[in-house]
Amino acid sequence: MRMKAISEMRTDHHQWRWQRRAERCLAALTKNGFRAEAVADVDAARDLLLKRCEECTSFGFGGSVTLRQLGLIEALREQGKILYDHWRDDLSPEEELQLRLDQGRCDCFFCSANAISTNGEIVNVDGIGNRTNAMTFGPRKVFIVAGMNKVATSLEAALQRVREVAAPMRARSLNRQTPCVTSGVCEDCQSPQRICRVTAILHRKPFLTDITVVLIHQRLGF
Ligand code: SF4
Fold first, then answer.
1. Are 209 and 139 in contact (CB under 8 A)?
2. CB of 213 closer than 8 Å to CB of 116
3. Which 8-state DSSP code applies to residue 132?
4. Which of 58, 88, 118, 215 is the most exposed place for a label (fewest CB within 10 A)?
5. pTM exceeds 0.85
6. Facing residues of 139 across strands?
7. Ligand 1 atom 4, closest CA
8. Mean pLDDT by 10 residues, the chain (222 residues)
9. pLDDT recorded at residue 14
10. 93: CA distance to ligand 1 center in Å?
11. CATH architecture designation of domain 2-216
């Protein structure tokens, strides 16, 4: 009983800290021209996103563990929408490339962020660049979905999060032979298998793209 009480207390403190941080982050994102919303959990996020993109026909997805945790792709597939999702095992290299290209011209693009600062800056590091391209220009609507574990207190802290958390974990998930997979932190490697090749920082909303950031009060993705 006592252990349960302590764990509930910790959860409560976590939620309080995330709540305060989310409030700052949402205000800063809005000031920077983005639409920004916060929801309690993945179910609420999925419902919100499905409602916001009802009129869209074609959908692209950046490679993202967070998106998969939402069950969004399955829900859109059930609605018969056109999906450009390259995270599949049955694709030839040509088919995978075409899907990445199609993501840049779909009605609605979904991705996560590697980090978001409480000053309202969005940071992503890509190996290819289909995500960083599609989220800045091409699709009419873009939704960036992130758990509160990805919100950092400054742009420098956001970049540090990418180096110390997101990129090494992503490299490990891909079984890359890179130094970070051994040491657990970025070593700014020269490896031919390096996944960090393009850094995109959205300081303000790009002119022609309607971007909404949805923060979720849960720990999600890398
Ligand atoms: S630059 Fe290299 S060492 Fe650093 S996170 Fe990326 S892949 Fe890992």
1. yes
2. yes
3. H
4. 88
5. yes
6. none
7. 186
8. 66 86 97 97 97 97 94 96 94 96 97 98 97 97 97 98 96 96 96 98 97 97 93
9. 80
10. 24
11. 3-Layer(aba) Sandwich (3.40)
Break the chain into its structural domains and give their ranges.
2-216
Q: Whose CA is nearest to atom 7 of ligand 1?
A: 194
Residue 161 Cα, ligand 1 centroid: separation in angstroms? Answer: 12
Both tokens of 9, joined, read: 């207390």
125 C-alpha to ligand 1 centroid (Å) = 10
- DSSP track, 72-94: HHHHHHHTT-EEEE---TT--HH
Q: How far is CA 146 from the centre of its chain?
A: 5
CB-based contact 164:185 (threshold 8 Å): yes
Pocket of ligand 1 (CB under 6 A): 167-168, 171, 178-180, 186-189, 191, 194-196
For the chain, strand residue ranges (E) read 35-39, 58-61, 82-85, 108-111, 115-117, 122-126, 141-147, 151-152, 198-202, 210-216
- pLDDT given for residue 47 in this prediction: 97
Beta-strand relationship, 35-39 and 210-216: parallel
Burial profile 69-105: b = 16 or more Cβ within 10 angstroms, e = fewer? bbebbeebeeeebeebbbeeeeeeeeeeeebbbbbbe
